[in-house]
Amino acid sequence: MERDGRTATILGSGRLVGCRVLLIVGGGIAAYKALELIRRLRAEGASVIPVLTAGACRFITPLSAAALAENRAFTDLFDPTDEGQMGHIALSREADLVLVCPATADLLARMAAGLADDLATTLLLATDRPVMVAPAMNVRMWDHPATRANVATLRARGVEVVEPDVGPMACGEFGPGRLPEPDALLEAVVARLAPGGRPLKGVRAVVTAGPTHEPIDPVRYLANRSSGRQGFAIAGALAGLGARVTLVAGPVCLPTPPGVDRVDVETACQMAEAVERALPADLAVMVAAVADWRVEPAPAKLKKDEGAPLLRLVENPDILKAVAAAGPRRPRLVVGFAAETGDPVAAAQRKLRAKGCDLVVANDVSGGVMGGDRNRVHLVSASGVESWPELPKDEVARRLARALAARLTEANA
Ligand code: C5P
After folding, report:
1. Is 57 part of the annotated catalytic residue set?
2. Per DSSP, what are the bridge partners of residue 8?
3. In terms of Cα–Cα distance, which of 21, 398, 9 is closest to 189?
4. What are phi and psi of 285, to 5 degrees?
């Protein structure tokens, strides 16, 4: 525990930075421990979306779960607002882990039977993500053949079961059925979500993302359609593997991923300076769609009645090229992106040589990639081309972070 003067905060070691947990809280007396678990998951850097069953709402309130999670808590299957904002299918698919805690005998039975008569069970039936359950109930209910059979069924389907503790129970009896303490639950989640530890621990990374804005006059600018999403997702995924990430972001409206240091810039020249300040680093991933040219900006607003202005374009610094040629300050691994409307692999191969980087991630931006949620990329390096299927940008980011961690480890060996 550490006090910051006003509030007491539990500081974790960031072992779950970038991990998303969908926490389904069942209706048992142990539900109060789920609140403490939310605090601990957050302290480790995980994002948590709480879902409370009707029974859970009798023991704890959605408000306390939401306040601790710093996220909306969901309770209702048929809420038209929720369905409009985030449908229950999306909710069930966007987590890295679905954790049912506490899992009551009733909830386990409904999971085993495949019922979907409330939000919690519907999410559990719709999810394609790993599911972990932490049962808590009276010892006789836990030992009952029906519960044993339900737990066996769930295990056979790949659900991970956190064994309940043995001890005195709220009902006055003694035996197995107690929900483990939040620390033990947290360790079970960490073991599941960060089993390989944090391969980028101690690695310093600099990531650029988003567009740049090049002013024409005090109100106008040159820009492009980059949303920054892919770069932000990569920064978050690298932090999730333990890297210390500086994210140099062009003008975008995106939240900073947990565990990432963000530097906001507007122009290519500012981005180049911020990247230079972030060196030395071990890894550079230049995702930003940097404007190739800038304008000598007019000091006052250009007027229509003064005729069309002649814009003299001046070439911007090539940040990627400069980083790759930074001599002793050159990161061990320099990665560029190639957003192309033609053949992305051929263009990436040319870019690899022209920019002097180690890897180019090529994507075809002729469809809805810029601003969209999905991306199809090819990893082009001197050793060949690896093409991935079309994936959500978050998944591209996680895979890329793991691939970069593997390359850095190989280079070290
Ligand atoms: O030069 P081009 O824009 O085709 O190359 C794209 C790659 O170069 C991306 O990784 C982008 O972030 C980087 N780049 C840069 N500075 C520039 C132009 C592009 O870092 N001025």
Report:
1. no
2. 3
3. 21
4. -125, 105
Q: What is the pLDDT of residues 176-186, one digit of tens each?
A: 999 999 999 99
Q: CA-to-CA distance for 120 and 351, rounded, in angstroms?
A: 49
Any atom of ligand 1 within 6 Å of the Cβ of 169: no
Distance CA 275, CA 265 (A): 10
Coil, strand or helix at 121: helix
pLDDT in tens, 23-51: 999 999 999 999 999 999 999 889 999 99
Amino acid at 379: L
For residue 218 the two structure tokens come to: 């005090």
Q: Is the distance from CB of 102 to CB of 33 less than 8 angstroms? A: yes
Residues 148 and 221 in one domain: no
Same domain membership, residue 327 and residue 243: yes
Pick the catalytic residue from 171, 253, 269, 357.
171
Of the three residues 196, 224, 253, the one that is the final residue of a domain is: 196
* 358 alpha carbon, distance to own chain's centre: 25
Q: What local confidence, expressed as pLDDT, does residue 220 receive?
A: 95
> In this structure, which residue's CA is closest to atom 17 in ligand 1?
318
pLDDT at 3: 33
Same-domain pairing of 47 and 150: yes
- Asked whether residue 60 falls in the same domain as residue 209, the answer is no
Query: What residue has token string 């003064």?
Result: 306
Domain count of the chain? 2
Average pLDDT over residues 186-212: 90
Q: Of the residues 232, 319, 370, which should be mutated to test ligand 1's pocket, given the most ligand atoms within 8 Å of the CB? A: 319
Domain that holds residue 50: 10-196
| Position 302 in a domain | yes
Q: What is the CATH number of the domain that holds 191?
A: 3.40.50.1950
Distances in Å between the Cα of 24 and the Cα atoms of 34, 49, 54, 57, 99 are: 9, 8, 11, 12, 6
Same domain flag for 186 and 242: no
Give 378's contacts (C-beta < 8 A, 6+ positions apart): 344, 345, 348, 361, 362, 363, 385, 386, 387, 388
Backbone angles phi, psi at 278, to 5 degrees: -80, -10
**211 and 152 in one domain?**
no
